[in-house]
Amino acid sequence: MNKYEIIGIVGEGAYGIVYKAKCKETGEFVGIKKFKEPDDDEIAKKTIMREVRMLRMLKYPNIVTLKEAFKRKGRLYLVFEYVEKNLLEVLEENSVGIDAKRLRYFAYQMIKGVTFCHRSNIIHRDIKPENLLINPADNTLKICDFGFSRPLPRDFRGPRLEGGKMTDYVATRWYRSPELLLGYTDYGPEVDMWAIGCIMGELSDGQPLFPGDSEMDQLYLIQKVLGPLTKDQLESFNKNPRFVGLKFPEISKPETLEKRYMTSLSKKALQLMIGLLKMDPAERLTGEQALRHPYFDDIREPEVEEELTSLIAPVQRPIYSSQSRITSYGTKFGTTYMPGQLIQ
């Protein structure tokens, strides 16, 4: 720690504090994440070690670089390249959204970074504006915070690997896909693609696409725009103990993405967003498909995309089954849900 001069605090979370610092030898600015003592907190310890492990594996221009990790006086420190802002701060500065050119460039970089993760057999599981760092000088975007990331079973279609099931409570609610909200534990990379679709909408007009107050409210808001859950999803909803006694109000005419974004998104941007926000994850665009979308024709980097798709064989999509998606929460609600009602 003696090699760095602390300049100030730039963020604080459940597990620690992030400082802006300067390397005394090189003059380079870095971000230092100082973790709270995790010895008695197994969840915190697991999250920290997962982030270190993932970032050591993932080296890519659109993923934040972990420079070093060390312990001092029992505390773990992670040293990252310093990136001045995150996308949430950009949104706060642009309350009605950002210009179309920047939106497209950010979307392209998000998809490149996430595709690299997926081709490396990793799901991020918490893509949101706070976890997307932005360099204002050149609008470079880098994905950060891999504490919730998880390696994927190599092949969902074969026998389930040990530890193949995943926790459902990941991703900030507003960017959480229907399969996560319904408690599925055999989801795949599609959850990251859904989050990118949500962020595209938010970048276009400055407003969150689905700002739900609870899982139930989130599912209702999604259906107000995209239409009803699939038959299999509805079956999962009805069987999930978390939603016992609840039902959705009838939605006669969904708002649709076309109506909402007809003035803030180009036709090609809207087509891409629709492909990312398919209710059925099996129909959602993959990273490779999204990169080939005509929306990116003017900024496409063919050599980069070719390198991405040649990394390793792509992870296969899971076969979704309503029986395998249900988790037991042990909590029941004996009320009828009404829009705006807060359900913990």
From TrEMBL:
UniProt keywords, alphabetically: ATP-binding, Kinase, Nucleotide-binding, Serine/threonine-protein kinase, Transferase
Database matches in Pfam families: Pkinase
MF terms (GO), sorted A to Z: ATP binding; cyclin-dependent protein serine/threonine kinase activity
SUPFAM superfamilies per the UniProt record, alphabetical: Protein kinase-like (PK-like)
InterPro entries per UniProt: Kinase-like_dom_sf, MAPK, Prot_kinase_dom, Ser/Thr_kinase_AS
SMART domains reported in the protein's UniProt record: S_TKc
Reactions listed under catalytic activity: L-seryl-[protein] + ATP = O-phospho-L-seryl-[protein] + ADP + H(+); L-threonyl-[protein] + ATP = O-phospho-L-threonyl-[protein] + ADP + H(+)
Domain annotation Protein kinase: ranges: 4-296
Keyword NADP in annotation: no
CDD domains: STKc_CDKL
Top EC group: transferase
Enzyme Commission code: 2.7.11.22
PANTHER family the record matches: MITOGEN-ACTIVATED PROTEIN KINASE
Name of the protein in its database record: cyclin-dependent kinase
Taxonomic placement: Eukaryota, Sar, Alveolata, Ciliophora, Intramacronucleata
